[in-house]
Amino acid sequence: MPLPPLVELLSSARVVALPLRTRFRGIEVREAMLFEGPAGWTEFSPFVEYDDAEAASWLSAAIDFGWRELPVPLRTRIPVNATIPGVAADEVAGILARYPGCRTAKVKVAGGDVSLTDDVARVAAVREALGPEGRIRVDANGNWNVDEAEHAAHALEPFDLEYIEQPCATVEELVELRRRVRYMSIPVAADESVRRAEDPLAVAEAGAADLLVIKAQPLGGIKTALQIVGRAGLPVVVSSAIDTSVGLSMGAFLAASIPELEYDCGLGTAELLAADVTTEPLSVTDGAIDVRRVVPDAALLDQHAASPERRDWWLARLKAVYAYL
Ligand SMILES: O=C(O)CCC(=O)c1ccccc1C(=O)O
Ligand SMILES: [Mg+2]
Predict the structure, then answer these.
(1) Which atom of ligand 1 approaches the CA of 82 most closely?
(2) Second CATH level (architecture) for the domain 6-71+302-322
(3) What is the pLDDT of residue 98?
(4) 24: part of which helix (H) or strand (E)?
(5) What is the pTM of this model?
(6) Does the annotation count 108 as an active-site position?
(7) Ligand 1 pocket: which of 25, 87, 141 to mutate (most atoms <8 Å of CB)?
(8) What are the Cα distances from residue 150, in Å, to 155, 169, 193, 274?
(9) Which of 38, 46, 232, 255 would disulfide-bridge 238, Cβ 3.0–4.6 Å?
(10) Percentage of the chain exceeding pLDDT 90
């Protein structure tokens, strides 16, 4: 498939800066670039610290979603998890209330300045709020070594975890941790080991994970992500990167195209944003989000437009990243 020329991307490019309700991954504002292609609106939003080579697959994904046909969706709604940032335990109930009907919560743990005691208290508060029917997964973003992860698994075991996402950074560590916690039957999910690896299938081939977290933008778009899912042969959770509702719609169409979706997806993250680009965001209702295209609202694009300096930065980034395609 030929690429759309750079001038065509530039002609509809909009850059927004959306405030988050709660600090997440160390950021308080999420910046994103949006384009309108012939197939619909699409998003390019690699994190600002990613280099151009890493951002290239995010741009491929944006082009795929805005310029090419989608695979046939198999469902119209995607069940999602609540996402609990690294907050104090007493903030948990208020955050869960933003996710009506969600039986599953993903809890961020192993954050830089937060102790395991705080992580345990946060997970305990989630179990308290969801009751025995709730499903609780934790995400350490690779921040534990194997001993810390094993210790955390013991401390969190009473809360009956659905899985631990990226407890350690490397594939070798994941293999070793899985060996150590197998007797506890806590599954291990790989996220960064899929989306930031040279080879997204290596973690599956090494037997280092029980399931994979799959994100459309870092994996180069819906079709390449679907190929990875097919080849990995493991169950998957489709997730987002705190995208705007336009980026979330890409994730929703990916989730809608996966034959077997046995886990709730991490696509409820519109609730983490204090503002969005549309008057009809992909909000969570009845524990799920819609599978549909999202059209930004002109007034909201203006209202949340990034500063001229940040817009120029994104335009320069786009040009540099385009050269990698
Ligand atoms: O999966 C979710 O519930 C939300 C998405 C999420 O946690 C996330 C969002 C931005 C960057 C990294 C991650 C992550 O899963 O590690
Ligand atoms: Mg993760």
Answers:
(1) 3
(2) 2-Layer Sandwich (3.30)
(3) 97
(4) strand 14-24
(5) 0.97
(6) yes
(7) 25
(8) 9, 14, 19, 36
(9) 255
(10) 96
Mean predicted confidence (pLDDT) in 279-300: 98
ipTM score for this prediction: 0.97
Measure 138 CA to ligand 2 centroid, in angstroms. 9
Quick check: 311 pLDDT over 90?
yes
Residue nearest to atom 16 of ligand 1 (CA): 141
Which atom of ligand 1 is nearest the CA belonging to 269?
A: 4
- Regarding the beta carbon of 30 and ligand 1, being less than 6 Å apart is answered no
Burial class from Cβ neighbours inside 10 Å (0-12, 13-18, 19+) for residue 162 reads: buried
Closest CA to 211 of 269, 148, 156, 166: 166
Ligand 1 in contact with 42 (CB < 6 A)?
no
242 lines ligand 1 (CB under 6 A): yes
How remote is the CA of residue 250 from the centroid of ligand 2, in Å?
18
Question: Which residue among 20, 81, 83 is best mutated to probe the pocket of ligand 1, counting the most ligand atoms within 8 A of its Cβ?
Answer: 83
Residue 226: closest CA among 205, 257, 202, 247: 257
Q: Same CATH fold, 77-298 and 6-71+302-322?
A: no
Which structure tokens are listed for 77?
């709604």
pLDDT, tens digit, for every residue of 166-175? 999 999 999 9
Domain ranges of the chain: 6-71+302-322, 77-298
> Which pLDDT belongs to residue 26?
84
pLDDT > 80? residue 1 = no
Mean pLDDT, all residues of the chain: 97
Asked if pLDDT for residue 289 goes beyond 90, the answer is yes
- 223 catalytic, yes or no? no
**Residue 239 Cβ contacting ligand 1 at under 6 Å:** yes
Sheet containing 161-165: give its strands across.
82-84, 104-108, 135-139, 161-165, 188-190, 211-215, 236-239
